């Protein structure tokens, strides 16, 4: 039997490669000679760089930039032969913030890292969006690239939209001229627009600390940002899909000319997922928590789609699985690693041994079903 193991990371617990390794150990308890193809996945968020590096898509490099709260920190980026990749979660990741308010954080470090990648000669750069702690619409990113945010009287504003006056202007004359010669891509599983009821502030703001009473102010600030940018360079639809990704960085990057694509699909193309599945007997994927949102651009959904295209059975093994008929239709069995009632802390701490145990039982069930069919 040949099995492709293509999980996403279990955020805050295990990297995708560690998840796959634990599943593999469980399978080998039953079939020591099972052929395992470890294929770590990601959807453009946390873990994208490690998944690409493990697939041999480039070398990890280190740079020093400012995080969302203004502290200098070392971060990694990936340099390949033709493509370089920046992971937003490395720079302004939500788990890294301290006691700051959302209004005080900005994405300037992402722009700093983009400039360092330009210094390194990169001419095709993908920005993996997801897991950000910011909601600044990319104001900090654009400022770090040389742009200036201005009030009506011409005074310069900090890249913190929540503190801006109603009328704001953007001076693009100082933007790094090398951007014109770079092919930019944004990788994301998010199709939300920048503003409105499905926008960055309304949908993703609460998990970053945005209070309900502050939502109108934050949403209005992002609308002002969009107006300022489109006043300088029109053409981008104000409600462009994916504009709300990473606190609105998706909009700023698309305004710069970046092309948006599915992060999971981009990674699958890079690691040759389809060809690897085509020769497999079984595929196992998973993530920290699966629910109805899994089927909207998440890595397990992409893995399941590729498996279906090749007629290969595909099972889901996640930290938690919230009941969904749609999930049951997409996968040949949905399994949670938890052997019984457990707290989130316990599940995260015991993820590796529980994955081994669950994978072992999944294979025993599959083999028993095969014997019955014969």
Automatic annotation (TrEMBL):
Sorted UniProt keywords: Kinase, Transferase
Pfam families to which the protein is assigned, alphabetical: Gly_kinase
InterPro entries: Glyc_kinase_flavodox-like_fold (IPR018193), Glycerate_kinase (IPR004381), Glycerate_kinase_RE-like (IPR018197), Glycerate_kinase_sf (IPR036129)
UniProt keyword Kinase, yes or no: yes
GO terms, molecular function: kinase activity
Family designation: Belongs to the glycerate kinase type-1 family.
Name of the featured protein: Glycerate kinase
Lineage: Bacteria, Pseudomonadati, Pseudomonadota, Betaproteobacteria, Neisseriales
């Amino acid at each position: 039997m040949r099995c492709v193991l293509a999980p996403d990371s279990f955020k805050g617990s295990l990297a995708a490669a560690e998840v796959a390794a634990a599943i593999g150990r469980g399978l080998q308890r039953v079939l020591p000679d099972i052929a395992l193809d470890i294929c770590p996945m990601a959807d453009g968020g946390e873990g994208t760089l490690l998944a690409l590096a493990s697939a041999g898509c480039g070398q990890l490099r280190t740079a020093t930039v400012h995080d969302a709260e203004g502290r200098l920190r070392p971060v990694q980026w990936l340099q390949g032969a033709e493509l370089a990749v920046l992971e937003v979660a490395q720079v302004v990741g939500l788990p890294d913030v301290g006691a700051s308010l959302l209004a005080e954080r900005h994405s300037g470090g992402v722009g700093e890292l983009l400039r360092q990648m330009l210094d390194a000669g990169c001419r095709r750069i993908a920005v993996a969006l997801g897991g950000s702690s910011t909601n600044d619409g990319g104001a900090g990113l654009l400022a770090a690239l040389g742009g200036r945010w201005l009030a009506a009287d011409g005074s310069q504003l900090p890249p913190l939209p929540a503190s801006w006056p109603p009328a704001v202007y953007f001076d693009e004359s100082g933007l790094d001229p090398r951007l014109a010669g770079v092919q930019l891509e944004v990788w994301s599983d998010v199709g939300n627009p920048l503003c409105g009821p499905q926008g960055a502030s309304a949908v993703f703001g609460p998990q970053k600390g945005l209070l309900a009473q502050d939502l109108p102010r934050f949403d209005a600030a992002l609308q002002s940002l969009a107006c300022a940018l489109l006043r300088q360079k029109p053409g981008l639809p104000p409600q462009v899909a994916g504009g709300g990704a990473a606190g609105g960085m998706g909009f700023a990057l698309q305004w710069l000319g970046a092309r948006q694509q599915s992060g999971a699909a981009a990674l699958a193309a890079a690691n040759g997922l389809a060809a690897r599945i085509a020769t497999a007997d079984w595929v196992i994927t998973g993530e920290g928590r699966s629910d109805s949102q899994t089927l909207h651009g998440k890595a397990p959904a992409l893995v399941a789609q590729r498996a279906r295209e090749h007629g290969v059975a595909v099972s889901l093994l996640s930290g938690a699985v919230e009941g969904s008929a749609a999930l049951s239709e997409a996968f040949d069995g949905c399994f949670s690693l938890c052997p019984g009632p457990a707290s989130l802390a316990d599940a995260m701490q015991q993820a590796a041994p529980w994955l081994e145990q669950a994978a072992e039982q999944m294979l025993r069930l599959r083999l028993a079903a095969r014997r019955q069919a014969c």
